[in-house]
Amino acid sequence: MRALLQRVSRAEVTVENQSVGSIGAGLLVLLGVDQHDDKSSTERLLDKVLRYRLFADPQGKMNLSLTETQGGLLVVSQFTLSADTRKGLRPGFSTAASPEKGQHYYQYFVEQARARHHQVATGQFGANMQVSLVNDGPVTFLLETQGDAA
After folding, report:
1. Which has fewest Cβ within 10 Å: 14, 31, 33, 140?
2. What are the catalytic residues?
């Protein structure tokens, strides 16, 4: 499972010109689900997302997590994060989860996030979404739980 984290001043997702999710300061998470992902990898990744220190402390160092700052969390499904781009000029998606499995673990990630964090917004799984954001920093990190103990 992969999560592209972007520290934002604000972010919003629209579908057919209608806002479906938005946050102020916090994290935009683009979430990709792979074939081998399960509840354990989903929970490990969520824990990392919520506790990853990418917000400034009073001294200006990245020492605070989303949990500590109580910022917003906007989770958007993005299967293209699971693309294999090592060869050629066209991405391959053989490692990506099926749409059914992807939706299941995306929803599980969101449910668990809502149980642990006060402000969680989402995109719409499988929809053609437009994502707008103001990346604060810019600060962007790629987190993965594939084959690691997170």
Report:
1. 140
2. 78-80
